[in-house]
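Hi P.,

Sorry for the delay on this. The queue was packed all week, but I finally got your sequence through. Input first:
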Amino acid sequence: MENVGIYTPPQKSNAVIGEISDTFHVDLSNDDLEVTQSAQDKLFEIISTSDDDVSAIRIYVGGGGCGGMTYGMTFTDQQTDFDTVQSFDGFKLYIDVVALNYLRGAQIDYIQEVGQERFVFNNVFAETGGTGSCGGCGGAAGGGGDDAASGSGGDAASGGGGGCG
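Then the structure:
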């Protein structure tokens, strides 16, 4: 009983499990997250007309619970060690690896309708097998449909998300 109350941290294992790699891949492809041409055009317009010294747009996922996850965008000038990067002509998107787990396989689109412009996140949870419906706690609000999260058409910093209804 000499080690009672003494914490021993876990030791690094050299075990190989399936195809797991210890290499972090920074670059994203269109298979990871599709950004439609209309969304690319609007994001480029927003970032190029910004007064700030902005180098990229960060896509984030927040919250959870009965209303589902919220998806949004904000300006950024710094890339972290945990960001994945998707490069386009004139701008970059940064998505941290946790957010990417919720966004992998999704599509970001920009919709212009009479009197309403917005970004939408389509097919959220496509890769993870979620329903994206509002059937109860844990469902992504609109995640499987056309308007998973929408921002106002004015700037990329507008988030989205929402509850059922």
